[in-house]
Amino acid sequence: MDGSLKLGHTYSLTGEYRLDQITILLMRGRELAKGDLVYVKHPKNHEPVLYQVTKVFPHKRVREYEESLLSEGKLIFDVDDSALHAEAYQWGWMDNDGSVRPLRFPLPPNIPVYLAERQLVEKFTKPSGDWKFLLGTDPSTELDVELGLYPLIRQSCLICGSVGTGKTTTAVSMIARAVNVSPPVRFLIVDKDGEYSSLIENLGVDKALKVPWSSFFQAGDIPWDDYLAEFGWQKTWWNSKILFQALKILYSQSAPVTKTNLKKVLQLVDSDKLGFNKKEDEFELYRMQVQNAIFMSKLIPLETSDVLDPVKLLKDRLVVVMDLSDGKDTWEQKHIVVAQVLRKIFNEALENRKFGCIVVLEEAMYYAPQHGVFEIGEKESRGRLLSVIKEIATNGGRNGIGLWVVTQRLATVEKTVITQCANNIICHSLEDLDKQRLAEIMGQEFIDLIGDLPPGEAVVKGTALKCKFPIWVKVLPEVYPASSLSTPMSRFIHMNSQIN
Ligand SMILES: Nc1ncnc2c1ncn2[C@@H]1O[C@H](COP(=O)(O)OP(=O)(O)O)[C@@H](O)[C@H]1O
Ligand SMILES: [Mg+2]
Question: For 457-492, how does the pLDDT look when each residue is reduced to its tens digit (9 = 90+)?
């Protein structure tokens, strides 16, 4: 600590000195940047008390005659007349047990402020233990920023930022590193646009598998009302009664719900038993309508053939990518299937103490939309999916299911999900509207630190870091999202080469 670089002194325009925040008047030639860590000595035990810089600004002494000089067009350039100021807020000091405590004793005015050197910052920021991975480096100290895995499962994680700021690159790189620690973490990725297929190449097919969403579909698990919703029928209609009767027969035979099986048992439905007392011809017409609807249904598979079990897949591989990029206008079905997969995984974790994984939701607003802000699919299926996501967000962690949510718009994702996941946050540059939203959860200091970050840089805060304060990080990519393999320009180069 002795021999640390002295930057300047605490200073106050009003004469009032606060503890939670200090203003530093920098000595000539000294520099500071937003995010930097500085310290003053504890007035009693002389331990360093850390402060993080949120603002740096020049301050020029105001002179009344300056205004009249300027209005005359006369300019006096006086270097000694302005000084650099910085504002910083308190992190605290570390006691002998390694816990960070807030300073409670008043600080005398004009005390020296030093730059916090690497070893000191490291003591405050490096997570303990070995179950952790690298996220990137802190540009102000060049220190590695590592995240502990336990809190990332126990308390989930929110990765946010506007379009093109590096969210997916961050998420995909975090996953690639987390499967290479010991013991490796397992992931189920709900991948809206096929962005995570680059993980398959990076990790190899033994470790990672990409599955089209429809392969997870379990027709037998569908509540019968969902078929009515698909066909647009009311429960009281004869079509519905006939369909339910056919499903009951299938159920009693313990046969799976498929188009082929349903067609067979449909012939066994008896008009008298249903209490149909009109002409038999009319009943046959209804039966035909049901048969046609079954034939056209997207919810009912032709054969049971190969419905995949996500739990089984996760026992054999580290990463399962559920690819939702196929089928543009089928959000209702996608919601049903994602809900089935998540429910299955969560139930397994509740029953089996030897099972766990992290669920990654890319573009979370498509699965957990905030009511009244964003709507997609149908009310019923969307509601069922939201309820399982909320359950995982609130109870998943303690049952071995972590939730990592990737989103560009904070207001569009359901509030509970955002607040639960915000225990760990990796925040890239945000639109002003989302900054306001985030300020409600994280506080204004956090928003001040974000400012305008370039792509690939983020502010991280949460239980996965040792300290509970935000750190600036330049994310080190391990893998890039699949979309980065073709840039807009490369597409036109390709099209041009086809002509020549
Ligand atoms: N950490 C990073 N380092 C360097 N370049 C990055 C980084 N993160 C993102 N990029 C660049 O920015 C582009 C957009 O990143 P991406 O992760 O797809 O953004 P988002 O998911 O937020 O839309 C990538 O193709 C890549 O070229
Ligand atoms: Mg993305």
Answer: 999 999 998 887 889 999 999 999 998 776 777 778
Sign of the dihedral through C-alpha 301, 306, 312, 315: negative
Q: Dihedral of the CA atoms 319, 325, 326, 332 (nearest 10)? A: 100
Residue nearest to atom 2 of ligand 1 (CA): 456
Mean pLDDT of the chain: 90
Domain ranges across the chain: 6-125, 132-216+307-486, 219-296
Secondary structure of residue 87 in the 3-state scheme: strand
Q: How confident is the model at residue 171 (pLDDT cuts 50, 70, 90)?
A: very high
165 lines ligand 1 (CB under 6 A): yes
- Is the distance from the beta carbon of residue 429 to the nearest atom of ligand 1 less than 6 Å? no
Number of neighbours of residue 246 by Cβ within 10 angstroms? 24
For residue 179, how far is its CA from the centre of ligand 1 (angstroms)?
21
Cα angle 161-164-166, degrees, rounded to a multiple of 5:
65
Which atom belonging to ligand 1 lies closest to the Cα atom of 428? 22
Contact 8, 39 (CB under 8 A): no
pLDDT in tens, 95-106: 998 888 999 999
pTM of the model: 0.80
Contacts for 117 with CB less than 8 Å, ≥ 6 apart: 4, 5
Q: Is 455 a pocket residue for ligand 1 (Cβ < 6 Å)?
A: yes
For ligand 1, atom 5, which residue shows the shortest CA distance? 456
Residues with C-beta atoms within 5 A of ion ligand 2: 168
Nearest C-alpha neighbor of 403 from the set 436, 435, 367: 367
Write down the pLDDT at residue 226: 83
- Least confident range from 40-49, 218-227, 247-256: namely 218-227
Atom of ligand 1 nearest to the CA of 484: 25
Q: Can you give the pLDDT at residue 499?
A: 67
Structure tokens at 75: 């300019």
- Residue for token digits 């002998």? 96
Query: What pLDDT, on the 0 to 100 scale, is given for residue 293?
Result: 95
Rounded mean pLDDT of 251-258?
A: 83
Helix H or strand E encompassing 115: strand 112-115
CATH number assigned to the domain covering 132-216+307-486: 3.40.50.300
Residues 6 or more apart in contact with residue 55 via CB below 8 angstroms = 34, 86, 87, 448
The answer, yes or no, to whether any atom of ligand 1 lies below 6 A from the CB of 167, is yes
Q: What is the pLDDT of residue 492?
A: 81
Tokens, residue 169: 């690159």
